[in-house]
Amino acid sequence: MLNWLTHLAIILQSNDCVFCQQATRSLTGICDVCSEQLPRMFPRSYQHVLLSHAPQFAAHMLKRQRLCISVWRYRQSIRWLLNRYKEGGNSHWSRLLALQLSAQIIFAYRYHGLALPDCLVAMPCTESDWLQRGFHPAGLITYECGRLLNIEVVKRGLYWIKRVEKQKRVGRQQRWLNRLDAIRATRALSDRSIAVIDDICTTGASLCAASEAVYRVGACTVDVWSLAYNPRQSRSDTSLLDLSALE
Ligand SMILES: [Zn+2]
């Protein structure tokens, strides 16, 4: 039904770009002009960049993740897009965001010569976030990616077992410590290859906690996918050079 309505909207040219509000024939919901200006990442794993910023004790866990892939860098346009999706009542944007993520995933797996994973699982959201937003942003993206890529989705596969402070209020080391051991998996995933999906990857701490939870229930490999990577480096940080090479 939604597909049919989208096609009708395109025929009538009332399918507006989410950024500039101009009518577009693009099925992605982002017109070609706006799409070219987005800070798209090269479709390749940036695990080495996460590793260069992680505290020593977390390195072995990050190395256990096979691929870390994002669609965009978390710059102003993407911050606006994801903020409007999560906080602005635009849960229907999950479809266009999942289209972007799925396309990036196909390119990235082709680049690395790997097969797509067996199952997808969403990063869990807290009950208070769910009550505030009325939906689970990463959950909807995961559901849509499963549909688009024809991969099984493990519904409510992960849950938080303790409260963690919002990332902004705590330091880098503390962010890792708070999250380690904070997530559990709800069912066995023996010998399955899994991708954990979140909206934003900052230090990789939350995604690492999720992938460790999935490994504990028997997963053979874990990849982490997100819409945006937010590196948050200082200006003097030379690894920004690594990052610019990713785009
Ligand atoms: Zn546009």
From TrEMBL:
Protein origin, superkingdom: Bacteria
Per the UniProt entry, the signal peptide is none
Q: What is the similarity comment for this entry?
A: Belongs to the ComF/GntX family.
Q: Which PANTHER family match?
A: DNA UTILIZATION PROTEIN YHGH (PTHR47505)
Query: Would you tell me the protein name for this molecule?
Result: ComF family protein
Species: Idiomarina fontislapidosi
Q: What is the lineage of its organism?
A: Bacteria, Pseudomonadati, Pseudomonadota, Gammaproteobacteria, Alteromonadales
